Amino acid sequence: MTPDMSVIAKMGLLMRSFRQAVRAISLAATLFAPWCVPEAAAQTLERVTYTLPWLPVGDYAYYSAGVAQGFYRDEGIDFVINRGFGSIDVVNKLAAGAFTLGEADISAVIAGRARQNTPVRCIAANQTMNPHALIVLEGSGINTMKDLEGRTIATQPGNAMLLFFPLIAQANSIDTSKVRILNVEAAAMAGMLLNGRADAAAFFATNTDFLNRQAQQVGKQVRALRYADYGVQIYGQCIAATEEAIATKGDLLRRVVRATIRARRWAMEHPEETARLHVRQFPEVNANDALLSWRAAIPYIFNANTDRDGDGRFNDALLRTTFETVATAQGLDRNYDYRQLVDTSLLDR
C-alpha cells in the first residue's frame, strides 16, 4: 500500500512541534527552578542544636517565632531548640560538644572560665538587665530578703541565680546557715512553693504573672523579690559558644546571631503571634502563660542599655560590674581579665 504522504507530513510536523515544546518546557524549568521547587529542596540547611537554660517558657518564645517565620531558614539554618537544665549545665554541655550553641546566664560563663578555664564565651547579649528573683507567697511573712532566714528556697541543680545569693546575703545581713537550699526538678518548683513545701523559689521575675495565674487557682498569690532591688544590677543571659566553635564556625554562628536578633525584634512587635507560634512548637506550654512571660521578658531584653549599646552588644563598664559582682559572690579572682568573657566579633557592624 502506498503511504499517504500528507499524513506523513502531518506526523512529522507534530513530532517537530512536540520536540520544540519539550525544549521550551526544559528551558522554563531551568530558568524558574529556584522559584518553583520547595525552599528546603533548593537550599541545604546547616543544622544547629541550641539548648535553652530551662524549660521552654514564654521568655524564649522569640526562638520559636524565628523558626516559624523562616528567619533561621533565610540564613541557611535548621535551628533545633532543646530544653535545658540550668545555665551551669548549659556551659558544661557546650564545653563537652553536646550542642552547637546555648543560652546561659553570664554568671555561669564567668564561674566556668574563672574557676576551670572552661572554653565558653558569650557571643551576644540577650538580657541586658537581669531578671533574677526569688518568688514568694503573699502573706508568707517574707517581705524582704532578710526574711528568708529560717526558710527554704527551692531551685533546680545548676540554677545560676543561686550563684548570686551569697552577695545578696552579705548585702542584706542574711545568715546563710539559716537558709535551706532545696534542689528539685525544674517542673516541681512552682508546686512546691504553692503547697508550702518551699517558702521561696528561684525563678525569673518574668515568671511572676504566669505563676500568679497558677496560684490564684488555689486561692493564693505570689510576688517577686528582684535581685536588682537588692544591689545586683548586672547582665543576665547571653548566647554562648565554645572558643573552638567561634574559631571554626564563625560564619554559621554569625548567621544564628543575626537571625536571633531579627526574631527578637519581630517578637517584640508581635507578642500575641509570638506566643501562638511558641505554643505550636511546644504544645505543653500554656498559651496564656507564654504570652504573659514573653511580655514580661521584653523590658529585660529591650531597655536603656540596649538602646545605648545596640542589639547583642556588651557595655564595658556594665560587663566589668557584672564580673566583679559574680567574683565577689563566688570568691573568684578579681584580677581575671573580664574582657575574655565575651567575643562580639560575630555581631554585624
- Report the portion of residues in β strands: 15-25%
H/E element sequence: HHEHHEHEHEEEHEHEHEEHHHHHH
N/C terminus separation: 83 Å
Shape call: globular
Biggest sheet architecture: 5 strands, mixed
The name of the CATH topology of the largest domain is: D-Maltodextrin-Binding Protein, domain 2
Please write the CATH class name of the largest domain: Alpha Beta
Number of DSSP strand runs: 10
Overall number of domains: 2
Strand order of the largest sheet: 2-1-3-10-4
Parts with pLDDT < 50 across at least 5 consecutive residues: 1-19, 24-42
Number of discrete helical segments: 15
Mean pLDDT: 89
**CATH architecture classification name of the largest domain:** 3-Layer(aba) Sandwich
Helix/sheet category: alpha/beta
